[in-house]
Amino acid sequence: MFGIGFGELVVIAFLAVLVFGPDRLPELAQQAGRFVRQLRRFALNARDELRSELGPEFADLELADLDPRAIVRKHIAEAMAELDELEDTIRGDVPEPAAQKPLELGERPPYDVDAT
After folding, report:
1. 3-class secondary structure, 47
2. What is the mean pLDDT of the chain?
3. Could you tell me the pTM of the whole model?
């Protein structure tokens, strides 16, 4: 939850009791809950309004889809998949290389004068 472990949560709760007092703590928790609900409602309304403005072809739109990092990850994943398919296609057309046998004892390796 937000990268906060149990120990940190206990420390935060203890500090909240010290700072606000045990009498005001339930009231503050209730206000925080209302704020989170209002924020969630605002985000859902924004998403629904965006969907209705963009039209039916974007009916499955999620706000997380608009994150630039997610867009880049998606395009990289698609490009990698296309590259894998292309490599598989190329590998299917290339014949297997001929098996090479090791040199016999005392045998000299082939030497190409034109290649050097």
Report:
1. helix
2. 83
3. 0.44
Measured distance CA(64)–CA(72) in Å, rounded: 13
Place of tokens 């309304």: 45
Q: pLDDT tens, 43-98?
A: 889 888 888 888 887 777 777 777 888 888 888 999 999 988 888 777 765 556 67
Structure tokens at 36: 């989170």
- N- to C-terminal Cα separation, the chain: 65
Task: Report the alpha-carbon distance of residue 113 to residue 55 in Å, rounded.
Answer: 70
Query: In whole angstroms, how large is the CA radius of gyration of the chain?
Result: 32
Task: Give the largest Cα separation in the chain, rounded.
Answer: 95
Q: How many Å apart are CA 52 and CA 113, to the nearest integer?
A: 73
Q: What's residue 24's pLDDT? A: 87
Cα angle value 71/74/75 (rounded, 5°): 90
What span, in angstroms and rounded, lies between the C-alpha atoms of 75 and 80?
Answer: 9
